[in-house]
Write a structure and sequence with these properties.
The complex is a heterodimer of chains A (193) and B (893). By secondary structure, chain A is an all-alpha fold. Chain A is built from 11 helices and no strands. Chain A is globular. In chain B, the strands form 7 sheets. A 7-stranded mixed sheet of chain B has the order 5-4-16-15-14-6-7. In chain B, strands 25-27-26-29-24-28 form a 6-stranded mixed sheet. In chain B, helix 3 crosses helix 21 and helix 6 packs parallel to helix 14. Classes of the chains: A mainly alpha (193), B alpha/beta (893).
């Protein structure tokens, strides 16, 4: 499955940086409704085990059969959480306590680094401080220096991740989004692996 | 496992699994990062070496000033005035910055949404535009195919597309393009058109050169179409040239506060004061007899008889304005003529007797002969540019073809839609069948042309918007698809609860699609929501009356791409037309919106790119629109005409339309009325009364302006007050409550009253009171129905200068939807999947962290919704909502 327009892929880089694909997966979950390709990712054993452990209810899990009603159920939940009423607005500044002006602006970050991002159209149209966009950037830093990655996570992810994860865990009514909350929460840990 | 149990180590396991699967494709930005980064800029600030300035037209309110937007990094950063706009001359008000607020509002609608679950339940899912328009087209197409296109109803709140939406409704074949004009200004437009003809539903006073202004309830400092154009001229005239302005108002508005004289006036008595002034002017011999005899269609001696008893003392007994002041002002006004003018919108008109009040006010101008004169009450058309009166010699600007045509009127006989007509209640059919032919030819059913209110559509379709929902409920029109466009009826119409009841009823409204920029009370009750581009993101043709008295035009052009997946209404209807097919698409067969507007403006004498750079065009060599009525007809205009030897009226023999009048042997234009004179006397009011069964002694039935007290104000009990509403200068109706910066300034709507009124009621400032509103008693919707209509509670603010029998609230607050700012709630509650293009701009920390004026944070909250408690009250014949007649009691809570 291709989740975005073909961009350079570095297998070595992602192997060395396993957080990157996690961020890419989260970015998809937080920016679009679940479809068959995304469901395939959720059925991977490592991901599925998280979902089944975090929320052991049967029926809504990736392993179960998904009919049209199941997909719609998740679309409605996606909309409820992230669009309208958007209880868990995926905007970084909504979940951070103290932050500097434009701290979470992806565009500002790239400008500071002297670079121009090349997002897919779907990601491009998201706001600059959308959590999915921030996560896509994090994913795309696979292969970058450890220092750069650490700085990015400290500045652009950790300030909001725990708070957002907590809210998402409380509000989500379907296990896949509860699992997403768990994964985001893990990103908030400051201790490196 | 809870989220606390999932560690970063677990994360890495997941990541390794994902990476190994080969199913994840991720971008690579690592190599994009240079080793020598550029210095960090402050993206929230404008860098004028990078920012691009593009002119456009403001849409913060209905005035539409020319502005310039500065765009940097894909985001509009700042709005300035366009100095080339001859109307605003580079001035803007705070509402221009509101465009930035509503464009980048975090809770703005950005994606099409489809209802899931029950209507009004608030459960939605995103759909693609293909899905949304596909479903909509599938529901609309059969209506045409089955011969019932009128079951598609398009209902707008604010449409400045200059006829583009009409292109769609006509192409589709429905007459139901409804609006909210009756909620707003139809009562003040009808008198103007009765006097001056269809082309002059709005006047253009020459404030730059005037010496004296009498203002009856107008508030251009805060809320008046064209207000900004007017006020900078008025203030220059007052400050630099010594002009005087007198204001009659029920409360000390901002305009009253900058007037030379301000008189609190009893609501609904402006007409009494105007009549008394007419009386004084005639008594003093200060009328311009020459002008009156030449142009008024009513003998002055008859006018003298009408106003014989309307003395200043009589007017004082009604209005509370001292007789001596009425006399003084009338004399000063007349002596300043012709450089004097009246102003009225809408304080005088939105009453049961308001139409007649405005006719009296208009008579004042005719009486002193200031019409069309420098400094006087001029007429410069605001309609766009396709051969309008007074626009001869201008480049013809009209929508690109093909031209649509109106559906058939409803009635019996050749050329009529009999099928639709016969579905109407018999009582309605009987009424319409008895109409004169000129009304039969314009009748299109009860929603567009309500038969009980013929003067709501006699000149053109102003409609009676507040009756749409009751009429649907009564079964006067079957609706299959209802499209609301920037319409806030579910919040802002009188008896808004009735609106919501009808919208919730899936039998009455089987399918509701809402097109809007924010998730308001109307969108909440939709089945499909289509997110619209804002004014910073779309095209429009601009035309309005110029208070500098030379016609001009402008273009609204997109400064940035629409955010998210928003589309302009033009784009939406174009796509929809193409999906519906069946010939509708033929009217939307242009490539893109810019090419459509370029074609629209093709006859301008400057290249398209130059026009876009200027934003405005005007022929600066053209003479001002003084005395248009005295202009000679050209040879071309005289061709094919004949003259009535008795009246002098010049008529085109082919069209049957009057085009001019002979005066002193010269063929001149005259006024745009059938008789080419000023319609001080107009039979149409009497004809309307006869056709609708309105008693002939009702004030609205009189062919000459007369006075009668508002029915429910007669013998007003001592414990009753008149409740009025108003608009703040930083807000525009109820649609701006989600503009963050404006709501910071005004976010609540207390009940204003005079301190003496408070003392009488035993209330102190800040106390809570309950206002109970009663139904009106005149010939109107449920007129005379006993008992309370509704009530609401709110807190009190004292304001000296209020009329002691008046209590007032602004009507813009108390939203239950429209997002966290409008609701003054700390929780984000609207669609917020991103504001695309929010590229590095400052994020307002208040919105995510809470609204400081919310009650949760100890603030005063977001005000009280009042419209449920206000009765539907259409004025007889014209249908204009009598907003300012409401009678209430006030009790301390």
């Amino acid at each position: 499955m291709t989740m975005s327009a073909p961009l350079r892929k570095s297998e070595t880089a992602t192997a060395d940086d396993p957080v990157a694909p996690v961020c890419a997966l989260l970015a998809e979950l937080l920016s679009r409704e679940i479809d068959e390709p995304l469901l395939s990712l959720l059925r991977l054993p490592e991901v599925r085990s998280v979902i089944e452990t975090v929320a052991p209810e049967t029926g809504a899990l990736p392993g179960a059969k998904w009919d049209a009603a199941r997909f719609e159920e998740h679309s409605v939940e996606f909309c409820r959480l992230f669009i309208y009423p958007g209880i868990c607005a995926p905007r970084a500044e909504h979940w951070a306590k103290d932050f500097e002006e434009e701290q979470f602006s992806v565009r500002r970050w790239f400008d500071n680094e002297g670079a121009q991002p090349a997002f897919t159209p779907r990601i491009e149209e998201l706001p600059d401080t959308h959590i999915a966009k921030i996560l896509v950037v994090r994913a795309g830093l696979a292969g970058a220096s450890e220092e750069l990655v650490a700085d990015f996570e400290a500045q652009m992810i950790r300030p909001w991740a725990a708070s957002f994860a907590s809210a998402l865990e409380q509000q989500s009514q379907l296990p896949i989004y509860t699992a997403a909350a768990a994964i985001v929460g893990a990103l908030a840990e400051t201790q490196p692996c | 496992m809870s989220i606390q149990s999932l560690s970063r180590r677990d994360l890495l396991k997941i990541g390794s699994g994902l990476a190994a699967s080969g199913l994840v494709t991720i971008p690579s930005f690592a190599k994009e990062i240079t080793t020598n980064p550029a210095p960090a800029g402050r993206l929230g600030r404008i860098d004028y070496s990078k920012a691009k300035a593009t002119p456009t037209i403001c849409f913060g309110c209905t005035t539409h000033c020319g502005v310039v937007g500065w765009v940097q990094d894909g985001r509009v950063r700042r709005i300035d005035g366009n100095p080339l706009d001859p109307n605003s001359k580079g001035n803007i008000c705070s509402k221009a910055q509101g465009m930035i607020s509503y464009t980048y509002y975090p809770e703005r609608l950005l994606y099409p949404l489809r209802r899931v679950g029950k209507r009004g339940e608030g459960k939605w899912k995103r759909v693609t535009w293909d899905e949304a328009l596909g479903e909509l087209a599938d529901k609309m197409r059969p209506l045409r195919e089955n011969g019932t296109p009128e079951e598609f109803v398009f209902h707008y709140g604010r449409d400045k597309t200059k006829g583009y939406t009409k292109r769609f409704t006509e192409a589709f074949g429905t007459p139901h393009r409804l609006n909210r004009r009756s909620i707003c200004s139809s009562n003040r437009r009808a008198p103007l058109m009765s006097f001056y003809g269809r082309e002059f539903e709005w006047e253009t006073q020459d404030f730059e050169n005037t010496k004296y202004i009498i203002n009856f309830g107008g508030n251009p400092m805060e809320a008046y179409q064209g207000g900004l154009y007017m006020m900078h001229r008025i203030q220059h005239a007052r400050v630099d040239k010594g002009a005087r302005m007198v204001t009659f108002e029920v409360r000390p508005s901002a305009t009253a506060s900058v007037s030379d004289d301000y008189f609190p006036i009893m609501p609904g008595t402006d007409g009494a004061v105007a009549f008394a002034m007419i009386h004084v002017i005639l008594e003093e011999g200060l009328e311009n007899r020459e002008f009156w005899d030449r142009w008024a269609n009513y003998p002055i001696e008859d006018l003298r008889k009408v106003v014989a008893d309307y003395t200043p003392e009589w007017a004082e007994s009604h209005s509370g304005v001292p007789a001596a002041d009425i006399r003084r002002i009338a004399i000063d006004f007349a002596k300043a003529a012709p450089a004097c003018c009246t102003m009225s919108n809408r304080g005088s008109a939105k009453h049961y007797n308001g139409v007649q009040a405005d006719r009296a006010i208009r008579t004042l101008d005719v009486l002193v002969g200031n019409v069309g004169k420098p400094g006087g009450f001029c007429l410069s058309t605001l309609r766009g540019w396709a051969g309008r009166y007074g626009q001869e010699g201008l480049p013809k600007l009209s929508q690109p073809g093909p031209k649509t045509s109106s559906p058939k009127p409803w009635g019996i006989g050749e050329g009529y839609n009999e099928t639709a007509f016969k579905k109407l209640p018999q009582e309605v059919q009987d009424r319409v069948n008895a109409f004169p032919d000129y009304w039969k030819e314009k009748y299109f059913g009860e929603l567009a042309t309500p038969s009980e209110y013929p003067l709501a559509w006699h000149w053109y379709q102003m409609r009676v918007g507040q009756l749409v929902y009751p009429y649907i409920r009564e079964g006067r029109q079957k609706v299959s698809v209802y499209m609301s466009y920037t319409l806030g009826a579910a919040y802002g119409y009188p008896e808004a609860n009735l609106v919501r009841d009808v919208l919730m009823d899936e039998e009455l409204i089987p399918f509701h699609v809402a097109v809007d920029i924010s998730y308001g009370e109307q969108a909440e009750l939709a089945d499909l929501i289509l997110p619209e581009a804002t004014s910073l993101e779309r095209w429009d043709m601009h035309g309005t009356n110029n208070y500098g008295l030379i016609p001009y035009t402008g273009v609204r052009q997109p400064l940035t791409k629409p955010l998210g997946q928003c589309r302009s209404i033009q784009h939406i209807l174009k796509d929809l037309a193409q999906r519906i097919g069946g010939g509708v698409e033929e009217y939307f067969a242009f490539d893109d919106m810019e090419s459509f507007y370029k074609e629209w403006f093709k006859n301008l004498p400057i290249p398209w790119e130059d026009f876009k750079q200027r934003g405005i065009w005007m022929d600066e060599t053209r003479e001002k629109d003084y005395e248009l009525y005295e202009r000679s007809l050209t040879e071309a205009e005289l061709e094919g005409t004949e003259v009535d030897s008795e009246t002098g009226i010049i008529t085109n023999t082919e069209s049957g339309k009057a085009v001019g009048i002979v005066k002193d042997g010269k063929s001149i234009r005259g006024f745009d009325t059938p008789h080419r004179l000023i319609g001080v006397y107009d039979e149409i009011w009497k004809i309307g009364a006869e056709a609708t069964g309105l008693p002939m002694d009702d004030v609205n039935a009189s062919p000459i302006a007369i006075y009668d007290t508002v029915p429910e104000h007669k013998e007003l009990a001592d414990d009753r007050y008149v409740f009025t509403t108003f608009k703040w200068n930083v807000h525009t109706q109820g649609r701006s409550a989600q503009w963050k910066y404006h709501s910071e300034i005004v976010h609540t709507n207390p009940v204003f009253m005079h301190p003496d009124t408070g003392a009488k009621l035993g209330v102190a400032e800040g106390d809570s009171v309950k206002l109970t509103v009663f139904r009106p008693t005149g010939h109107t919707y449920k007129g005379g129905e006993p008992g309370a209509m509704g009530d609401f509670e709110n807190h009190v603010r004292f304001l000296k200068g209020m009329h002691p029998r008046v209590v007032a609230c602004s009507h813009h607050a108390g939203h239950s939807a429209q997002g966290s700012v409008a609701r003054a709630k700390n929780q984000l509650t609207g669609p917020k999947e991103g504001i695309a293009g929010d590229k590095g701009a400052t994020q307002d920390p208040d919105i995510p962290k809470g609204i400081w004026w919310s009650k949760e944070k100890g603030g005063i909250g977001g005000g009280v919704a009042i419209n449920d408690a206000l009765p539907i009250n259409p004025c007889p014949l014209t249908g204009g909502q009598n907003w300012y007649d409401n009678v209430c009691t006030v009790e301390k809570v």
